[in-house]
TrEMBL record:
Biased composition (Low complexity): 49-61
Pfam families cross-referenced by the UniProt entry: Metallophos
Every Calcineurin-like phosphoesterase domain range: 79-334
Gene3D superfamilies: 3.60.21.10
Protein name (Swiss-Prot/TrEMBL): Calcineurin-like phosphoesterase domain-containing protein
Any GO molecular function: hydrolase activity
């Protein structure tokens, strides 16, 4: 796309802005096509009180580093909601948000000033992974305009996919990324026609061709997923680099798997920054070691065992003692078939209920914490009738780490 402008002095503001307008239009069109019909609202104006880098003094100044990821929110919000693993199931994801009265029937944010934490594992096991990423991004922006906050976290499946570990990818997941690649390339081709825009990078540069595989759609989906999610990929950089890996909100510590004393000593802020930089392509192919081993922050199961007596409560107590004001650790990663529950005198709250159709197909439940630290389980699950409660008490005698209603979170049935 060329203009009739002949010199820099003759360029009108409208002429000068044509490339920017075209780029924005193409991005919006691609987003709408990939997300299932979402128009992302514009980002709200920056908050002067937030940790932002100062603008460059001149064009010759070096580019500013990315803004810091916020790790700690010392003042507890009036209402804090925690949502577990979503694993590629958009409808169950929406059900979870509706349970907490965070979105209306049109999927618009109605949560006001609520703070919401999604504990990670959006990716794998389902075919709506990109749609969920766009859905969460839309809600982040809508929440910010209403004084609310939606914080997304990295789970082990985000780390695995950025590393190129696709063991838990579904065919529908590969197809979703294949379709994304078609639209993304279309958008890049449109931008390349405009003389005022830089030539777009090819996201497939360096991605293997897999010539020995005869399934064309499988190969295209696999290559698209690698291109999108590898370090500095279009999807990983845009969405996953915004995730935190560890988080402290009021008196609650959030992490996908769990924290050990060595992780706290290393530095929670340092973990968040290093993982973000790795996702943005500033490291190697593989994540930092504290994200990759069985005792990693996104893989640990020391506090999630079905039997409370097998949880390492002493280690958990030491961790919480080293984080000022922390009373509990909230984690996902390990499916709790009995629903959201706690162990170690409710210092460990486990919120992964396996809600995705690809991973248990459990009924959604969410955890709500009000300003006075009262915990409630919001559920549409009819299991919480008197007969089922009696069964749960029998299981408690066998050593299951279940929340005792009188002393822990209250179960509140909500019609979804």
């Amino acid at each position: 796309m060329e203009t009739n402008c002949k010199s820099a002095s003759e360029v009108s503001p409208l002429c000068k802005d044509v490339p920017k307008f075209l780029s924005s239009f193409v991005d919006t069109f691609v987003d709408f096509s990939v997300s299932g019909g979402l128009f992302l609202p514009q980002d709200p104006p920056p908050n002067p009180s937030s940790c932002q880098n100062p603008p460059a003094d001149s064009l010759s100044s070096p580019p500013a580093p990315p803004p810091l990821l916020r790790t700690r929110y010392p003042t507890p919000p009036d209402r804090l909601v925690a949502i577990g693993d979503l694993h590629g199931d958009l409808e169950k994801s929406k059900e979870a948000f509706r349970l907490a009265n965070l979105i209306d029937r049109s999927d618009r944010w109605i949560g006001g000033s609520s703070t919401v934490v999604q504990i990670g594992d959006v990716l794998d096991r389902g075919g709506d992974e990109l749609k969920i990423l766009y859905f969460l991004e839309k809600l982040k922006r809508q929440a910010a305009r209403s004084g609310g906050t939606l914080i997304t976290m990295n789970g082990n499946h985000e780390i695995m996919n950025v590393e190129g570990d696709f063991r838990f990818v579904t065919k529908s997941g590969l197809e979703e990324f294949r379709v994304w690649a078609d639209w993304y390339r279309f958008g890049q081709a449109m931008k390349s026609l405009c003389k005022g825009l830089e030539k777009p990078e090819d996201p497939f540069d360096g991605v293997p061709l897999f010539r020995k595989t005869n399934d064309k759609d499988l190969v295209q989906g696999l290559r698209a997923r690698i291109a999108a999610l590898r370090p500095h990929g279009p999807i990983s950089s845009r969405f996953l680099s915004q995730n935190v890996t560890v988080l402290v909100v009021g008196d609650s510590v959030f992490v996908h798997g769990g924290l050990l004393p060595v992780h706290v000593s290393y530095g929670l802020e340092k973990i968040n920054e290093e993982v973000r930089d790795w996702i943005k392509g500033l490291g190697g192919q593989f994540a930092p070691a504290y994200c990759r081993r069985s005792d990693a922050v996104v893989w640990l199961r020391s506090f999630s065992h079905k039997l409370a007596e097998n949880c390492d409560c002493a280690s958990l107590e030491r961790v919480l003692a080293t984080i000022p004001g922390a009373k509990r650790m909230i984690m996902g990663h390990t499916i709790q078939k009995v629903g959201i529950n706690g162990a170690c005198n409710n210092q460990a709250i486990r919120i992964d209920v396996g809600m995705s159709k690809g991973c248990g197909n459990g009924l959604p439940e969410v955890l709500e914490i009000t300003g006075n630290s009262e915990l409630r389980i919001l559920t549409s699950n009819p299991r919480y009738d008197n007969n089922y409660r009696s069964a749960l008490h029998r299981e408690r005698k066998a050593g299951l780490g279940l929340l005792i209603p009188e002393h822990g979170p209250k179960q509140v049935e909500v019609k979804a």
